Amino acid sequence: MYQGNLSFDLVQKYLEMLVNSGLVETREGSEKIYVATEKGQRFIEDYHELQKYSDAVEAKRHALETSLPVTT
User: Fold this and answer.
1) What are the tens digits of pLDDT across the range 23-32?
2) What CATH number is associated with residue 53?
3) Bridge partners of 26?
4) Into how many domains does the chain fold?
């Protein structure tokens, strides 16, 4: 919450959305704990894979732009 610079209310809203989407589940004990579900873990893995492709595309775009002459 603090590292993300989010208010308590906003964190609660996001956690509720994640639970309702099946990406996170709660475990009750002495404290309430939020744990990524299998679906949530797959989502994170897919996101990281897409991020790698996005980074590669951005690097290639930048390389192409720098190899072209600048026209105004």
Assistant:
1) 999 999 899 9
2) 1.10.10.10
3) 34
4) 1
